[in-house]
Amino acid sequence: MNVDFSRWLDIPVTDKKIGLDNYDSIHLFSWDNIYINVTIFNSWIVMALIVLISWLITRHLTCGKEVSKAQTLIETMVLWLQKEANETSGSKTNQYLGMAMGLFCFILVSNLLTFIPWFRPPTASLSTTMALAGVVFLAIPYFSIKNAGIKGYLKKFIDPIPLMLPMNIFSEFFSIFAMGLRLFGNMLSGVMFASILSAFVPIVAPLTMQTLGLLTGSIQAYIFALLAVVYSSAVKEEIEPENLT
């Protein structure tokens, strides 16, 4: 097994040429034909931090009058995202909260870690954003069948007329692809712009861009999570109106 952490410090901009494969082409571990690149390794860091922070915050939960500031913060964030998910989906249940919270936290923490020098956010790699979009792609039939059954889920592909079947299938795939591509473009453009400016203004420009990147990254995390809820809750159980007598 070969380990080369020195490549973790390779800058994403090389010879003034910007490529889309810079993150995935830097391998830190290799074993036979198995390679672990910077994107995967940084994704592990993000997931480990989320697990660690969640454990630290939830290990001393209390229902009393006095709660810690960390618990108050996490409860506020959960309740806020719960409210947004329920209003977006039109559901009174919390069935979409776990997915929305997971996507939101992963994207948000990835963007927060950009303050660490040389850290490449996994969301700046197309492989990561398309994997997140793949989660939404699998969540759509899961929640649709759960709420409306297989018949209700398949019915949407021939709505309003059967001739719309090819267009509806194409729209299903393209909308999810657009989600991953949008997130990838926004995150990668910020990282590349900051890398270019840092060559001219080494201290001021990176700090300014990273601060702005935190704001835009938080917005992107929010938008991606809510879009996941919108697509997953598109098919609901049809409620027949009560007969009035």
* Main sheet attributes: strand count, strand direction, barrel closure: 3 strands, antiparallel
Low-confidence stretches: 11-21, 238-245
Structural class: mainly alpha
Gross morphology: globular
Q: What is the average of the pLDDT values?
A: 77
Using the CA coordinates, give the radius of gyration: 21 Å
Number of strands: 3
The helix/strand order is EEEHHHHHH
Main β-sheet, spatial strand arrangement: 1-2-3
Alpha carbon gap, first and last residue: 76 Å
Tell me the strand percentage band.
under 5%
What keyword list fits this structure?
globular, mainly alpha, 6 helices, 245 residues, 3-stranded antiparallel β-sheet
